[in-house]
Design a protein that fits this description.
Layout lengths: L1 H14 L2 H17 L7 H8 L12 H12 L6 H10 L3 H25 L2 E3 L4 E2 L2 H9 L2 H34 L7 H16 L3 H29 L1 H14 L3 E3 L5 E3 L1 H16 L7 H4 L7 H31 L13 H10 L4 H33 L4 H14 L5 H25 L1 H12 L12 E2 L2
Parallel strand pairs: 1-5
Antiparallel strand pairs: 1-2, 3-4
Length: 462
């Protein structure tokens, strides 16, 4: 196991080196320019997200599609992932994580637009779309679409499942001591709860997510605001520290150490992608199921997911962690062995409120991610093997939930980062190669947001 772990770590370090960071950040910046800085339409997207479009083709409402996507993106990456980024890359990683979110809005918009534009309809009336259909229908590159679906199917067991249930087990084990529950028992309980929901399909998943996501997001953000109010004396120093150590090495109060621009950027961007999934091609899989009259409307709605996830929630977590560690009675960093421990220790510094926010936040965030990614995985499995693959996939997904709590967390995170990269590359190819189409549709539909796209949606029989 140690040898395997070493190989995985080396592979992750190689994949997430300078080329991948340049590709990802380059796409974010390029699509920001290509779409005319689509970020300025974020509040239009927020308004559209609560606007129903029931007469348009689709399986779920725009709000349900958004909350299902948010369920998948607002996960442990927003809490433990940010802690891991700070632990490995220093406080400066928070800035890179945040910038990944700001510029990533354009990529999330772009990938969602082509997912809706090139979506198809199954013989039984279900909408299906995503990078694989954009690659197949938009670029005649079905082979690359197959690769995306293959990597996404396996990624669903890592980023959307194993890392999430593992985090749930760890937070329950460390914080709910009055109810001793073995990790395997936690896996069994959540396996049963998840089975009840995902066996009902996208409508069942979306119904749960549209109720769970707003509650958990508001609860967590309000809790963070209260903690930042308690840490008000270290808030400005923390912001200065984050901005300074994003570009140069150094140490500050509380034992926080910045290791320079490459380490801060690497871990900040990697955890930013894990958190908001911009460029990954995951959210478009559910965006393509939304009821929307044209591709740009749903793309704007989907893009708000990155805004809420990283620009708001991840920033809140980063500020809470850094301000808490920098307090006079902050945690002893010499006793911390990983990002998860640092996050737990930081929130524990806040009497009563901190541990409650951490426990409820991680459980809700992680469980919602498990639900959302189950849909992503089954869409890709169906693309590869047809409708007959749906039930076996769901049963295997539930089995992973049961056994993942006993797997080492660091190894799971590393595998998830590798699968993220393998999944992102074909999706970014689709976004960049179809950037002309994206720019053209953006220019046209932004001036005609209520216009109905009358392009016929092909029916496929798989």
């Amino acid at each position: 196991m140690e040898a395997f772990s070493s190989i995985i770590t080396s592979l992750e370090n190689w994949i997430w080196g300078a080329p991948m960071l340049i590709l990802l950040c380059g796409t974010h910046i390029f699509m920001t320019l290509r779409t005319g800085f689509i970020q300025k339409k974020t509040f239009t997207g927020i308004r559209l997200s609560v606007t129903k479009d029931p007469d348009s083709p689709g399986d779920v409402s725009q709000f349900q599609a958004l909350t299902t996507a948010l369920a998948s993106t607002i996960g442990t990456g927003n809490i433990i992932g940010v802690g891991t980024a700070i632990y490995l890359g220093g406080p400066g990683a928070v800035l890179w994580c945040w910038l990944t979110g700001v510029f990533g809005i354009a990529t999330k918009y772009s990938e969602s637009l082509i997912a809706v534009k090139y979506r198809v309809q199954s013989a039984d009336g279900r909408m299906q779309g995503g990078a694989m259909y954009a690659l197949e229908r938009g670029l005649n590159m079905k082979w690359l679409g197959i690769l995306f679906a293959f990597f996404a199917t396996f990624a669903s067991f890592g980023i959307g499942n194993a890392t999430q249930i593992n985090a749930i087990a760890e937070v329950i084990e460390n914080n709910i001591n009055f109810i001793p529950t073995p990790r395997l028992g936690i896996g069994i309980i959540f396996g049963i709860i998840t089975a009840v929901v995902i066996l009902g399909g996208i409508k069942s998943i979306a119904t749960v997510c549209e109720k769970l996501v707003p509650f958990m997001a508001v609860f967590y953000v309000l809790g963070c605001i209260i903690i930042l109010g308690m840490n008000h004396d270290t808030l400005i120093p923390a912001i200065k520290t984050i901005c300074t150590l994003a570009f140069k090495p150094g140490a500050v109060a509380g034992g926080l150490v910045g290791q320079g621009i490459m380490m801060a950027a690497r871990y900040g961007i990697a955890r930013g992608l894990f958190s908001n999934e911009s460029g990954l091609g995951s959210a478009p899989l559910v965006a393509s199921a939304a009821q929307t009259r044209n591709p740009v409307r749903q793309a704007l709605v989907s893009a708000t997911g990155t805004f809420w996830d990283t620009v708001v929630v991840c920033l809140m977590t980063g500020l809470v962690l850094v301000t808490t560690i920098m307090r006079d009675n902050g945690i002893d960093m010499s006793t911390i062995e990983n990002g998860g421990q640092m996050t737990t220790a930081a929130f524990s510094q806040i009497p009563v409120l901190g541990p409650i926010i951490l426990v409820i936040g991680i459980i809700c965030f992680a469980y919602s991610t498990i639900l959302g990614w189950s849909y992503y995985g089954e869409r890709c499995a169906e693309y590869l093997f047809g409708k007959k693959a749906l039930l076996p996939y769901k049963l295997l997904y539930i089995a992973v939930i049961v056994i993942a709590p006993v797997v080492a967390l660091d190894l799971v995170w590393n595998i998830a980062d590798i699968l993220n990269a393998f999944m992102a590359i074909p999706n970014l190819v689709a976004v960049l190669a179809l950037s002309g189409t994206i720019a053209k549709d953006t220019k046209y539909y932004l001036a005609n947001l209520d216009e109905v796209d009358t392009t016929e949606i092909p029916v496929v029989d798989k």
